[in-house]
Structures are given as C-alpha cells and as structure tokens.
Design brief:
With 339 residues, the chain is α/β, with parallel strands linked by helices. It has one domain (3-338): Alpha/Beta hydrolase fold, catalytic domain (Rossmann fold, 3-Layer(aba) Sandwich). It is built from 11 helices and 13 strands. The strands form 4 sheets. The chain has a 7-stranded mixed beta sheet, with helices on both faces. β6 and β7 form a beta hairpin. α1 (28-34) packs across α11 and α2 crosses α3 (89-100).
Length: 339
Amino acid sequence: MAYLTAGNPENPAVILVHGNVSSSIFWRGALSSLSQWFYVLAPDLRGFGGSEPLAIDAARGVRDWSDDLRSFVVALNLSVPCHLVGWSLGGGVVMQYGIDHPADVFRMALISPLSPFGFGGTKNQDGEPIHSDFAGSGGGTVNASFIERLRSRDTGSDSPNSPRNIMNQFYFKPPFQVSASEENLFVDAMLSTRIGSDFYPGSHRQSEHWPGVAPGEDGVANAMSPKYINLSGLAEVTPQFPVLWIRGADDQIVSDASLFDFGALGKLGAVPGWPGEAVYPPQPMVAQLRYVLDRFRAHGGDYEEFVVADAGHAPHIEKPDLVLDKIAHFFGSTEDARS
C-alpha cells in the first residue's frame, strides 16, 4: 500500500481513507493541518493511487479494503485505538473497519460517507431492496463516457464527462475551484484509478427490472452495491466509539436526491422508462445513515451530525478551516480524556 504521512509518530495516529475515483492526494490539506497535533497517515486503497493493483472481490462488499486497512495498521505497528476519517467510499470502509475491529477505533469521523446500505437499488430508511437482483446498482450504472475518459487519461475540460469537469461539478459545489496546480494534482489522482472488471467500475449483468442493469461480482461499483454491503451492524458494535458525521449541505453525490442514483435521475426525467416513485423512488442516502446512527445512539453510542453550508461532496477541501478544525477538536478532546 502506498501512503502519505505527516506529523510526529509519537502523537496519536489519525488514518485518512479517501473516496472513490481519487487517492490520498485529496487529503493534502488535511495532512498539513492535522499533523500539528497528530501522526497522520493517508493510504491509497487498492485499485487507486500507488498501491499494488490487487483485484477487488465485490462479493465481500468493502471488506477487501477494510482488511487491507487492518494489515496497514499492523504492518506499521500503529498504536491502537486510533482515530479514523473516511470520505465517501472511504466512509464505508472505515464503518466496516469499525464493525470488524471496534477495539481499534478511538473516534471516527465520516465525511460525506457512503450509505450503510450501499449505493443504488434500495428504498426507505432501513435499506429495503427495490428488486431481488438489486437492479440499478453496481458496475453497469457508471457513465460509459466517464470510464473511457479515465481509461484514456483525459486531463482536459472539453467534455462534461471529463474527470476534471466531473470533479468541479460534483465533488465540489460550483463555482468553487481549487488552485490550478492543486486541480491538476487532483485530476492526476483521479486518473490513477485502475479501470477494468476487477477494478473500476466492475462488471454488470442484464436485469428484467428497470433500469436494466444489475451488479456483477467484482470491482469497485459492485462492492458498493447493496447486494454485497450492509453496514447497519455499526449500530451494535462493542466497544463503542464516538462518531462525527460531516456532510455538505449541497452534496449532489451522497444525498436523498443524488444525481448519481437512478431513482433520482428517473424522477428528473433524465433516464427514460422510470416506473414511478411507488416502484423505484430515489434512495434516501442521508436518511439511511441517520437511521443507523440513531440506532447506534439507542444502543448507548454517541454521534454528532455536522452540516457544512454552501459545500458539496468534499467539505474538507471546500471549507478546510471549518471542517479540519472541527475534526481536530473532536479528536483532541478525547486525547485530553485519554491523558
């Protein structure tokens, strides 16, 4: 696993886990900011960045990445419990890690995290599957033009589906933009995504149900399908750890009306043949996480939901002073208690 690090190794460890179609580079600001108080590490997940390109077994959900993270902690002999931060897909990974290794986690921060019931194909706050084959989730739901532009390492802005334009339109809330040099670094990080059936987005199958595609068994998008992932067990972990949930108020990727969810796109008329809200409603991603965290609280856990105004899917980049200070304070208060 490739990784970035900053800070004094004698300080408490904070591990930053990046999101889909990105890499540890998206944590540059957080590494600099948090390293004042913590030993900060940001690994590249398999299939992204500089890590060894091992295949992703989607039938294990996000456990390949959770297991890799556990191996990372052991290989570097990090002192546990430590703090975890997960963004987007990385939020799902650290939730899985917390389920599998709760004693390793001191505190957990989730930034715009994946719904505990995956991406696409579910309804209601408890993640009820819309169809038995989980149609509308998995590798077949990813825009083919975007995949090809990742494959061809497109660094331009001519197409609305170029990585640069997707980032500026959906990772951030327009008109926000980072500096030109940082934007180039982020685009390069996106282009580090391995493309193929074992990687991103993964394979898919045809479905008799709208929108006509169902998940395969390999790759990134299938690992996020509700066919294989269910993180509702977070509600009952023992021992428990406090959770800080941070989300942008204007997130277009993870929301109750996500522009990457077929239910929401069908309702907008962007995908033909939508069978209607009674059959295939938008996935309530935010409500689903709140449902699980409320159950977590009912079992004695503690969480805070922190909504960042005028921010999209990457509030730690869009509003770094506010968000990173919030995380540092959240982690620092427990360090006071530990000492």
